[in-house]
Amino acid sequence: MLKCSNIHKSFGDLEVLKGIDLEVAPSEVVVLVGVSGSGKSTLLRCFNFLERINEGSIEIDGQVIDPKKQKLSAVRAEVGMVFQHFNLFPHKTVLENIIEAPMIVKKMNKADATKLAKDLLEKVGLADKADVYPSKLSGGQKQRVAIARSLAMEPKVLLFDEPTSALDPELVGEVLAVMQQLAQEGMTMVVVTHEMKFAREVANRVIMLDEGRIIESADPKTFFENPSNERTKQFIQLVD
Amino acid sequence: MELLKTAYEVFMRTYPGFLEATLFTLQITAVALVLGTILGLFFALMKISRSKVLQTIANLYITIIRGTPLIVQIMFLYFGITSLVVLSGFWAGAIALGIHNGAYIAEIFRGAIQGIDRGQREASSSLGMTRGQSMRRIIFPQALKRSIPPLGNQFIITLKDSSLVYIISVPELFAMANREAAQSFQPLETYLVVGVYYLVLVMIFTFLLKLYENKLDVDK
Fold first, then answer.
1. Nearest CA to CA, how far is A200 from chain B (Å)?
2. Helix H or strand E segment including B137
3. Domain span at residue B21?
4. ipTM of the assembly?
5. Do A48 and B219 touch (CB under 8 A)?
6. Contact B129 A101 (CB under 8 A)
7. pLDDT by residue (tens digit) across A42-92?
8. How many domains does chain B have?
9. Domain with B14 in it: what CATH number?
10. Which of A71, A76, A133 sits opposite B219 (nearest CB)?
11. I need a labelling partner for B61 at 20 to 30 A (CA). Which of A58, A81, A211, B205 fits?
């Protein structure tokens, strides 16, 4: 579903990604972990071209994406992203946040978009919040709306960039529950997170990034109980 | 006290003419603001565009307009344009004032647009919106709301700056006051009265602006 080969990315003189190869199968849930500065968020942002790679290639659903030849907006419409700080549109209600992209990008009519949005709000447990503005929601509710907003575009892959890091501890669970439900329904997901419990229980594969390279890639059981790399062992001791 | 009494007499004697002149002042201000807002939006978008040529044009415009006195611009435009086409003092003045304001309003819009959190653009991009769609639907509506207080301030400046077009004989409020002061030999009283006219106009405008800002605040 998502495949990248030999990705290099630098910011000025600083090389953040030093040759990443990764393939994500349909319906697979991949969790990216690593200390801050390891490049995991940058890698995620390369997948939907919020960052342009300097070298290497990215394939989505069997198609190699060339930023020079293709309209990136069309590519991004197929790769959803959930941000750490939600980035809901503050001047629009919850419902308007969700129907915006389907109507503007996919030219869906308002009645269909509204029906879709209401179904998605139902799914994330916020059916009663359709007409309120984001400023009236808790962090956990905001993030669930942001997930619904991404889902409204029916993406092939959903990227999560530390979706629970900005939340109060007691609100983390409700967001993770929605993510777990999506995983069970077969959504292809790449998740950057510090929630090791989620990695352990939901991921099909856990990948450790260190200084711009993948140093460990294994199923959760092996990753946490029998990691091969010394740095991974240290990391697990530190966070678990 | 004596001054207030004679000023009141001047007021009673002059208000028919002054009210008519006030209308002129408001008309000039309105034309200048509409033109200035359109130009301002235009140049703000040029300045944040990815084209170096457009950026340079916008920077040149803003530098020249902000770097020269308004009264020089009025004279330049009046004598410049009227040598090419027949244009009344009213239109020459209003256009000069509009072009002048455009530079300041461009900077207001640019600041507001660039002040919107980067995450808003990233979120709209990640949903598949193009740069244009994201600007129209997500960034600009938020930026416009933030522009309103500084725009209101700029509008007040414009209203007062419109007095400078007296120099090209537009019969607006200040030109009327000048004439009255010279004819009546009561300059102090006359300028006091005209000052109050401007003050009242600005106060009314400020009040309307406050109402509007409060209304915008209701939801977010």
1. 28
2. none
3. 2-216
4. 0.92
5. no
6. yes
7. 999 999 999 999 999 999 988 888 888 888 888 899 999 999 999 999 999
8. 1
9. 1.10.3720.10
10. A133
11. B205
